[in-house]
Automatic annotation (TrEMBL):
SUPFAM superfamilies: L domain-like, P-loop containing nucleoside triphosphate hydrolases, Toll/Interleukin receptor TIR domain. It catalyses: NAD(+) + H2O = ADP-D-ribose + nicotinamide + H(+). One of its GO terms (biological process) is defense response. This is ADP-ribosyl cyclase/cyclic ADP-ribose hydrolase. Residues 20-194 form the TIR domain. Keywords: Hydrolase, Leucine-rich repeat, NAD, Repeat. Signal peptide: none annotated. Its EC number is 3.2.2.6. It is an enzyme of class 3 (hydrolase). It comes from Rhamnella rubrinervis.
């Protein structure tokens, strides 16, 4: 049944309304995008009625956004505006709203939802009452816009639009509204108002009366049954599917879920496991979940169990087998062994509609609805619409039109095809000629009537039509054009002609469709042309028939194309490996196209290759059973060669003549294929696909001659170890895929010189491996093999651990340009200073320097501020890191396991406190991020800032009843772990006691492999701990927190020392800053005193002869023990003029007492001594 722009409908809008591109335009602010608006959008789409404009997926790239938005509003039937608290902050939202009101303001097509908004605030935006302006976020937002010169001229229209929608079109979602129920009711309401999609059913002829009749069948059935079963039966082309589809579109919003399963007969005939796939689709569409049904019985059980409580609308289109009904809707039959109990699949009020040509399939459960042809007037309107784009024929063609309708027997499909055929013929003589041919068709010969349109095509378009009817129905238009063009057809033009004549259509996902009667007609034409002699058919589409032709050697020169697939159903392959005569191929000399998919042919090995036609232009043979192509096969016209999952080891055993027309070679997933011998035989190749050829180990250097190659797919070639050094000849290469080629250690030199390359697909493992090898090689040779500029924005993780990298000179200049790196592993390298450029890695969040035993100093200014975690575990020479006495921009967690030299040089406790202070100063981090710090213990006491302490491994805190009135932001914890702790990890737990119960959460873990006592400091924000627990407690009353540290394997472990906890409030951060500041000032003051006394010493002069090997000076000694100690150090370390004459007369040794901030012993070599003095002067 076709469209009539003047037909009536139950919709609120006339079917003569101009068609629009979108049913609904959604306007919303980003604060509701991923919650309410997302759920609303999904609900509208699930109903199946709407084309929705939502800016995150409907805005075309590369076009002016504002223009596109305004055009979309004009081209929408309805607007749904979700006004949230921040809606007016956006000038985009306000522009949309003003345009919506301008276009739809008086039409009743605006629906506004006020989401968590005080409606009076929106209505008062135009008020001058100061009291109403107070605390009004919408008024304040408009005031801000008024101050912006680029917005001020629009503020008046924006204000007016807000006021209008607030008074006229308001729906409310309050904070206590059940949003699921609101959305369901809102969608049902707008669905009812809009009716079925106007774009889709605009003007269907005769549809209104048939819908009313069908609905009466449904209502009558539901009067006596919980579930309604309707069977619409009738001949092909009469309009059964159209009626069912429109009913689904108009009524689906009244059900909990709905699904329209189209073309069931065809799906089951052509698709592997077709019924199981339909079960999957039924469940996925209705429930919105991704089901994986493996077999029919599981699908039946899932449908029965998941839908039995739901009111559903299910439509099965074109059923031709009882098993299809049994697998999908076999509800309400009597259970086995029971007289009265029914097997229930669907909930009360459900409606099941089946369309079929076979009335006998409809059991007694089904109300039978006999589909009717159009009446005379409806048929004439449909024909006229197709022929003249008017519901009435032109006056001079009126009688002729009535004759055509009569001969077409009012059948909608025939009327559509004939109207498209005759419309362009502008003379009465041409019409009379066509009518003469119609008269010759028997009354019941529908094919005869339809064939008139086929006969009117030219030879090329006839070939395109027959190929599509026999092979390509339901396939993507782009793929079909590619295949047909390889056979020499201008198929884009031909398909366009066939669509114009209503012999084809292109669906919404760009697939080619034709009515099943037209498909049957095309196959009938092929059979008749061969005299029903199988070996003379121009086209073979059935695998059984192909076997017969090959086995019996029935093939002839008449065979042009073979396109067959295996059918898999009910989880079992219906095909078995069948032998056949290879000689059978040799008789089909004019084959132009072969597509063989999933047919089980025996492996032929090294012999008995099929003698294929040299006329072939397109080959697709999945599972090709030979090790190579036959030596006689040298097809000059071959354009496309595709042998996926084949047994091919090599394509040609001997050199062949160049195949100048060959553009595509695809051998993906052929595990035996090892090497492409010579690329010079395919000089014009554009696509080479060798994906997942697991045996491929190398690419022949002759590939460099493929100047026209656009695509090179090598992904998954797990044995491929290298590419040719020089591939600069691939001047046209746009896509190079090396994904999962993990054995490639080196990429081609000068890859960046491929100027056409736009898409380089390399997984991070391959990139990192190549760059790792490159950097390590550079460290030893100083030479760069390739310039990795391609990877600057793609490489996020780089492992350079165990690379024997000795210093800054071991890293190439480009190292600092890997700006997308987020994780860098430099562990176990012998460098003593960091490589240059690390501070430029602005996205680096994790840096591992574990076991870098020569690393002495790690200055903060050499590191990027983006760091969130820094590991220096087992850096046993490290003496300076995050010094609390120096300014530092880092706010990262740090792990310093067994860095014992570090705490000899700087206070470990204060290093940890200074680091957490810096971390908590950043509001974005203290609210969202965890913080951890591990350092060897340098004292016996916990930091005093942790005001809740215990000598055991747990702390309980009794909360003040008014604790909620303060802004708690997180928890800080500290634990001392003894060296005898033998495990690799420990955990901490937080338990919360509510009014009646405890809730326990394991908050985290820390690595703890160490040889000395260590201090572990942890900070966890509330959002990740307490907030989550509180939501589980009802009522949310909490009075006690318990923090405990446990061995993952032994909860009674005695390796834990004292622990401490602090609940961190906003004001505590200032206290922590004061502690750090006081420490800094104290150290600075004591250091200043030390510098003063050191200066005195430097001016004292020599105490003995300048030739003395070590002058001994004693200041304020209080006992002889220090004198002895001083003497010992002097004897051991004093310089000797024999070994270093430059030291004579320039060495002082001393022991200082009562000099605050200075260690007692300064008995060192003069180099260290003066370095200390110089550094002290710098500090001063």
């Amino acid at each position: 049944m076709e469209t009539n722009p003047s037909s009536s409908s139950s919709s609120s809008y006339s079917l003569s309304s101009p068609a629009k591109k979108y049913d609904v335009f959604l306007s919303f602010r980003g604060d509701t995008r991923s919650n309410f608006t997302s759920h609303l959008d999904y609900a509208l789409r699930k109903v199946g009625l709407f084309s929705i404009f939502k800016d995150d997926y409907k805005l075309p790239k590369g076009k002016d956004i504002e223009t596109e938005l305004m055009n979309a509003i004009e081209d929408s039937h309805f607007a749904v505006v979700v006004i949230s608290e921040k809606y007016a902050d956006s000038d985009w939202c306000l522009k949309e709203l003003a345009k919506i009101v301008k276009c739809m303001g008086d039409s009743g097509r605006i629906r506004t939802i006020f989401y968590h908004v005080n409606l009076s605030h929106v209505r008062d935006v135009a008020s001058t009452d100061a009291e109403k302006q107070k605390d009004n976020s919408f008024w304040k937002a408009l005031e801000q816009h008024a101050k912006d010169p680029s917005h001020s001229k629009y503020v008046e229209s924006w204000t007016s639009a807000l006021v209008e929608v607030a008074y006229k079109y308001a729906d409310y979602v309050k904070r206590d509204t059940d949003e699921a129920i609101f959305i369901k009711e809102f969608v049902a309401k707008i669905s009812s108002e809009l009716g079925a999609s106007i774009r889709t059913i605009e003007g269907l002829f005769g549809m209104t009366s048939r819908l009313i009749k069908l609905d009466s069948y449904v209502l009558k059935s539901l009067d006596t049954n919980n579930v309604c079963f309707i069977g619409i039966h009738g001949m092909g082309g009469i309009g059964k599917s159209s009626l069912a589809e429109v009913y689904h579109m108009k009524m689906s919003h009244k059900f909990d879920g709905s699904c329209f399963l189209a073309n069931i007969r065809e799906v089951c005939e052509k698709e592997a496991n077709g019924l199981v796939g339909l079960q999957n689709k039924l469940l996925n569409v209705i429930l919105g979940e991704d089901f994986q049904v493996e077999h029919l019985k599981k699908g039946i059980n899932l449908i029965r169990s998941r839908l039995r409580a739901m009111k559903v609308l299910i439509i099965l289109d074109d059923v031709n087998n009882l098993k299809q009904l049994e697998a999908l809707v076999d509800s309400h039959k009597k259970k086995q062994g029971s007289e009265n109990e029914l097997d229930i699949w669907f909930g009360p009020g459900s409606v099941i509609i089946v369309t079929t040509r076979n009335e006998d399939l409809l059991t007694k459960r089904y109300e039978k609805y006999g589909a009717e042809c159009l009446d005379k007037n409806e048929a004439l309107q449909l024909f006229s619409w197709k022929a003249f784009e008017s519901i009435e024929p032109l006056e001079e063609f009126k009688m002729l039109s009535e004759k055509v309708v009569k001969y077409a027997r009012n059948l909608p499909l025939a009327l559509t095809v004939l109207g498209s055929l005759l419309g362009p013929k502008k003379t009465v003589d041409l019409w009379n000629s066509a009518l003469c041919r119609l008269k010759k068709c028997p009354a019941d010969d529908i094919f005869g009537r339809l064939r008139i349109s086929f006969d009117d095509l030219d030879k090329v378009d006839q070939s395109v039509f027959l190929d599509i009817a026999c092979f390509f129905k339901g396939r993507r238009k782009h793929d079909v054009i590619e295949i047909l063009d390889s056979c020499g057809f201008d198929s884009q033009y031909g398909i366009s002609n066939l669509v114009g004549k209503s012999l084809l259509s292109i669906n919404e996902v760009d697939e080619i469709w034709m009515h099943d009667l037209l498909e049957e007609m095309g196959k009938d034409i092929v059979r008749r042309a061969s005299g029903n002699e199988l070996g003379r058919q121009s086209r073979i589409w059935n695998s059984d028939e192909l076997y017969q032709i090959l086995q019996n050697k029935e093939g002839t020169d008449e065979v042009e194309a073979i396109f067959t697939t295996s059918v898999v159903s009910f989880g079992l392959t219906t095909e078995v490996v069948r032998s056949y005569s290879v000689e059978g191929w040799s008789f089909m000399k004019k084959l132009r196209l072969i597509k063989i998919q999933d047919i089980l042919l025996p492996w032929l090995g090294d012999c008995d290759e099929p003698e294929l036609s040299n006329n072939l232009q397109y080959i697709y043979w999945a599972g090709f059973p030979c090790n190579k192509l036959p030596s006689s096969f040298q097809p000059p016209k071959l354009v496309h060669l595709e042998l996926p999952r084949s047994k091919v080891k090599q394509l040609w055993e001997n050199r062949i003549k160049p195949l100048c027309n060959l553009k595509v070679i695809d051998l993906r997933d052929s595990p035996l294929f090892t090497k492409f011998g010579d690329f010079t035989v395919v000089p014009n190749l554009e696509k080479l696909i060798l994906s997942d050829c697991s045996g491929l180990s190398e690419i022949d250097p002759s590939i460099n001659c493929l100047h026209k190659l656009i695509l090179l797919q090598l992904n998954g070639c797990i044995s491929l170890q290298k590419l040719p050094e020089d591939i600069n000849g691939l001047a046209s290469l746009q896509t190079l895929n090396l994904y999962k080629c993990h054995r490639i250690k080196k990429l081609p030199n000068h890859l960046e010189q491929l100027k056409s390359l736009r898409d380089l697909k390399i997984d991070e493992e391959t990139i990192a491996s190549a760059i790792r090898e490159e950097i390590i090689s550079y460290g030893s040779t100083g030479k760069i093999g390739f310039y990795p500029g391609w990877f600057y924005t793609s490489l996020t993780v780089l492992f350079l651990s165990d690379g024997d990298l000795t210093g800054p000179e071991a890293f190439p200049e480009y190292f600092g340009k890997l700006v997308s790196l987020s994780r860098l592993y430099l562990s176990n390298n012998p460098f003593s200073v960091l490589p240059p450029g690390i501070d430029g890695l602005s996205r680096l969040t994790s840096l591992s320097l574990d076991h870098c035993k020569n690393l002495r100093c790690l200055e903060a200014e050499l590191l990027p501020s983006s760091l969130e975690e820094l590991d220096v575990n087992y850096c046993t020479s490290l003496t300076s890191f995050l010094d609390p006495l120096k300014p530092c921009h880092l706010r990262c967690s740090a792990y310093c396991l067994d860095c014992t030299e570090l705490v000899k040089k700087q206070d470990g406790e204060m290093t940890a406190l200074a680091s957490i202070t810096r971390f908590l100063e950043d509001p974005s981090k203290r609210r969202k991020k965890d913080f951890k710090f591990v350092v060897p213990e340098s004292g016996n006491e916990l930091p005093s800032w942790f005001n809740n302490r215990s000598s055991t491994a747990s702390v309980s805190i009794k909360l003040d009843p008014n604790w909620r009135n303060r802004e708690l932001i997180g928890f800080a914890m500290v634990i001392c772990l003894r060296a005898n702790f033998s495990k690799n990890y420990f955990f901490w737990n937080i338990r919360v006691r509510g009014s009646e119960n405890w809730e326990t959460v394991k908050a985290g873990s820390m690595e703890c492999r160490m040889s000395d006592d260590h201090l572990f400091l942890v900070y966890a924000p509330c959002e990740d701990t307490l907030e989550r627990i509180m939501k589980q407690l009802k009522p949310p009353i909490c009075d006690t927190l318990e923090f405990s540290f446990v061995d993952a394997y032994d909860e009674r472990s005695f390796s834990f020392g004292a622990c401490g906890v602090r609940l961190v409030y906003e004001e505590d951060i200032e206290e922590l800053k004061e502690i750090a500041s006081k420490y800094y000032n104290d150290q600075h003051s004591s250091h200043s005193q030390s510098i003063s006394q050191l200066s005195m010493l430097r001016h004292m002069g020599q105490i003995e002869s300048p030739l003395s090997t070590g002058l001994r000076g004693i200041l304020n000694l209080e006992d002889n023990s220090e004198l002895l100690e001083m003497q010992q150090y002097a004897d051991e370390d004093g310089p000797h003029p024999e070994s270093d004459p430059s030291m004579v007369g320039n060495t002082h040794y001393g022991v200082f007492r009562n000099c605050s901030g200075i260690t007692t012993n300064f008995l060192k070599k003069s180099v260290d001594w003066f370095r200390f003095i110089e550094e002290s002067e710098e500090f001063e």
